[in-house]
Amino acid sequence: MMRRQYDFSNARRNPYAKRLKKQVTIRLDEDTVQYFKDLSDETGIPYQTLINLYLRECASSRKKLSLVWRSPAKGVA
Q1: Diameter of the chain by CA atoms?
Q2: Would you say residue 46 lies in a domain?
């Protein structure tokens, strides 16, 4: 049975909490952010968590992006 109130006055912070996630700054297209925000509305999961879950899945499966960079034509800035 759950109590109405709990006493956390003697609680300690998790010493490993800072190792669990790292705050980074990343630039994303507006459409990409909106996609995850819409998905967040559907699932009830925060959009940043969804982005993290997707990236974690890509990393764990070693998914590689098929991407070819082309050099700009000469004289084109």
Answers
A1: 74
A2: yes
